[in-house]
Amino acid sequence: MRDAIVIGARCAGATTALVLARRGLDVLLVDRAAFPSEIPHGHFIHQSGPARLAELGLLDRVLGTGCPPVTTITTDFGDGPLTGRGLVRDGVPLGLGPRRGPLDRVLVEAAAAAGAEVRERFAVDELVADRDRVVGVRGREVVGRRRVTEHARLVIGADGRNSAVARAVDAPLTESAPTLTCWYFSYWSGVPVDGILIAARQRRALFAFPSNDDLTAIFFAWPIAELPQVRANLHGAFLAALEVVPELAERVRDGRREERFAGATQLPNFLRRPHGPGWALVGDAGCHKDPLLALGLCAALRDAFLLGGAAGA
Question: What is the CATH T-level fold of the domain 181-264, as seen in this structure?
């Protein structure tokens, strides 16, 4: 029997597997995807996130994927811009915005190097229970269809806001609120930004920050009630919303959008009970919130450290 099986090998799951493996536990990390693999999610890391990456010894590796450190922040909430520069502490920048493909690959490779078994292209079909305790998983290889049963003292769901693990154990909601906003984003070349720009006014919110491959990521949010109008003319809605920051709008007109727009419209806010007999939840599986504060990856790293410390004690 293994010590832990982690379902979901992206930020929360790979980091949890890494922390547990470094504590000497026998860990299996599984995911339906093969890495590297992009997903249309937000990806700015700030608050405690950069320091946690540094503690893991991975900050330089993530920056080395071509993701620049962010040491400047400008906020503009309608009363004029406010800028802070040189935001570095003990060599750790304020933030960074790596694409999910390079970020998740670094984390998965680190988990494997720490001793975790990484099983890509593996789908979990159901949890295995002994009375009221979860004791493992049944699943299959996506290629080849070979069926496998694995047992563990702890099964960890790092499988996102629609967590199958949470459904299987009937993890109760302790707090909830409906979707409040819809978000769309893409990546531009030729649109330089000095650090991260955060603007909010006229019931719109904007993030813009540098990312991999010399691209600038621009994210925009509208109230969820406006989703039909936004979808009807996404390009026009995006350009109109950019006028809340005229200087950025001008740069975007002179730049080039390098990828299609991606969107996020299913954004419920909730807390679930994150643990029970033989199971636990990390990241969005246990706590999902509106992207307005860009806390998803920060919380994923936090949960990995908290659970890794508790399970490895």
Answer: D-Amino Acid Oxidase; Chain A, domain 2 (3.30.9)
pLDDT in tens, 160-191: 999 999 999 999 999 999 999 999 999 999 99
Cis peptide before 291 (omega within 30 of 0): no
Model pLDDT, residue 58: 98
State the Cα torsion 108-32-279-285 to the nearest 10°: 90
Q: Find, among 11, 114, 115, 105, the residue nearest to 64 by Cα.
A: 105
Residue 268 DSSP SS3: coil
Model pLDDT, residue 313: 58
Does pLDDT of 283 surpass 80? Answer: yes
Distance CA 71, CA 94 (A): 5
Q: How far apart are CA 176 and CA 170, in angstroms?
A: 15
This prediction's pTM: 0.95
The domain defined by 2-43+99-175+269-311 folds into FAD/NAD(P)-binding domain (3.50.50)
Q: What are the C-alpha distances in Å from 139 to residues 2, 7, 35, 122?
A: 16, 11, 19, 7
Buried b (16+ CB within 10 A) or exposed e, 129-141: beeeebbbbebee
